[in-house]
Amino acid sequence: MESLPVRCPVCRRDHMYATPAYPCPCGAPTTTPLLRGAPVTRITHRTWTDDWVTARCRACGRHDQWPQPELCCPCGAVLRIPVRPVAAPGRAPGTASRPVRPSHIPLPRTAAAPRPGFRPLTIRTAQDAVGAAALYLKWLGYREVVQPAGRPSSRIDLRAAGLIAQVDSTTRPTALRDVECLWLNALSASVSGVFFSLAGYAPDARQRADGLVIPLFVMDLTGTPQPVNGPAEELVSPGA
C-alpha cells in the first residue's frame, strides 16, 4: 500500500493518505499510482472524466478504471490526490480514453424475497433515527449491523458486513460534501455505503449519489425509510 503526505491547501492541516487497493478481476489487489511532489487540489467542480483514472494491474497487466484518489479533510474540503498517468492498452502515453463505469463494484447482496413487512421505529430523537436505520438494514438482509461506540470523526453511524451507513438527523437537507465523504470512507474500507436523511438531500448531493451509485433514503418520523434514487430502489427491490 502506497502512502503520501498531504497538506490541505484550505486549512493547512497535514494528513497521511494511503491509497486503497481494489480487486482486479484476476484476483490481485490493484492500486492507483500516486504522483509524489505534485500539489493536491480542492474539488470545486466534478466531471465524470476527472472522477476516474486508469490503473494497471501488476499481476495480469489489465488496464481498468478506478476512482480518482480523494481525501476528505475535517475542515470540509474534498481534495483530489494527483496520480501518475497510465496509458490505456493500445494508446500512446498522454492519449485520454473515455472512462466507463466499473462493473466490479457491486451493491451488497440483500435478503432473498419475499421479505416480511418492515416494522418501523418511531423517531423522537437523533438516536432513534440511527436505530430505525439499523432496523431497516437488518430488514434488507445485512448481517452484524452495529453502531460504533461513540461517533467517529468519519461520522459513520452504522457498520455491517460489507457496509457502512451514515444517518443525518438534522433539519437541513444533506449536503454534497456529506455524500462524498461517505463515498470516500466506503472506498477506503472496501465496502458499500448507504445514506439515510430526515430532511432529504440537496439537489447536487442527489445527483452526485446517482453517479457514485450510493443508495439514498429519506426517513419520516414514523421511522420508515423511503428510497429516493435508483441505487436505493435497486437495493430494496426483491431479488436485488
Automatic annotation (TrEMBL):
<protein>
    <recommendedName>
        <fullName>Restriction endonuclease</fullName>
    </recommendedName>
</protein>
<feature type="region of interest" description="Disordered">
    <location>
        <begin position="89"/>
        <end position="113"/>
    </location>
</feature>
